Amino acid sequence: MGDLFRWQQEEAKIPPCGSNDLAVSVRWSRAPGGGLRGEIVAENVSGHACRLGRKPTLQPWGLDGQPLGVDQWTTLELRMPPFVILAPGRRASAPISWSGWGGRAASGRITVSWEGGSATVDADGPAQPDLPERGETGSLSSSWFTLLS
Known about the structure:
mainly beta, about 150 residues, about 40% strand
């Protein structure tokens, strides 16, 4: 029970990372079956520690400048604490995947949102996955941020 209270106290003391606190990048590569696998990397570029919590959400943008509206799955694995503390200059990454897409053409721009902020960036790698063999549009998924050494 003591560990639970300790991380809750830490969460209350450290502010969430805001949009201006982080430099964010997204990198995709092709996965078997035509989907994409990748990672989000967030670097604290502020002069103070901040808390990067919860799983990030993703919103790919189309060539027409509009959000594509891709479904995102949220998996329910438990992680305590549900955040990482980023000191100035520290980085964290979160694995991401996009299983397939058969809608409007993606531009390669993507909005990453987290508790406290968001960033829209041009992703490195393929702009979109292939259409799955079953013809369904597929979905996005992300996992927890982990500190990078």
